[in-house]
Amino acid sequence: IINLEETISAFEKAMNFVQGVVKKNGEVLFIGTKKQAKDIVAEKANAVNMPYITERWPGGMLTNFITIRKAVKKMAAIDRMKKDGTFETLSKKERLQVDRQRAKLEKDLGSVADMNRLPAALFIVDIKRENIAVDEAIKLGIPTFGMVDTNSDPRRVDYAIPSNDDASRSIAAVMEFVTEGVKAGLSQRKSDKATAEQAKIDKKAAKA
Fold first, then answer.
1. DSSP secondary structure string, 11-65?
2. Does pTM surpass 0.85?
3. 79 phi/psi in degrees, rounded to 5
4. What is the rounded distance in angstroms from the CA atom of residue 28 to the CA atom of residue 180?
5. pLDDT tens, 34-77?
6. How many CB atoms lie within 10 A of CB 40?
C-alpha cells in the first residue's frame, strides 16, 4: 500500500533536488521504456528540452559513454553524407543499408544524440525494470530519483517517489510535477545568468 502523505513529502524533496541540478546547468536524463510511459516521458522531457530514453536501455549508456558518443558521431556522419550529396553516389543497396543503420541508431539513442556529457541526474519511471540504468548510475555516482512502486526497493535510488508506475495517469501526474521542477530550475538559471551579466556591466561602468 502506498502512503500518499509519503508521496507528497517525496515530491517536495524531488522538486528541490531537480531544481538545484538544473539551476547549476545540469541535465536530467528521463528514462521510461514501458509501453504506458513512453509517450508521456517523451512529451514531458521534450517540453523542457531534456534528454530521454523510451526504447530499450542501451547497456553501457553511462559506464561506456565514449562508445555511445561514437554511435552518435556515426549518425552525424550519415546526416552529412545526405547533405553534401555523398549519399547519392552510393548504390541502391548501400543507401538502403545506411538508412537502416541510421534508423536503428535513432531508435536506440533518441534524444540522447544531443547529449554531449554525462547527465547530472537520472529520473526513472520504473526502477525495477530499469535496473541496469540504476546500476550504472550507482557505479558512477550519478544521483537518481524516480517512481518506486510496492514491488521495488526504494533504497536503490537517492530520491524515491512512492507511486504506481504501471498506470499512465499516475506516470503523467508525476512527470508533470517533476518537469515543473525542471522549469523552475531553468528559470533560476536564466535569472542568475542575467544577474551575473548585469554585475559585469555595472563593474565596467564603475571602472569607467
1. HHHHHHHHHHHHHTT--EEEE--SHHHHHHHHHHHHHTT--EE-S---TTTTTTH
2. no
3. -65, -40
4. 13
5. 999 999 999 999 999 999 999 888 888 899 888 888 887 888 88
6. 21
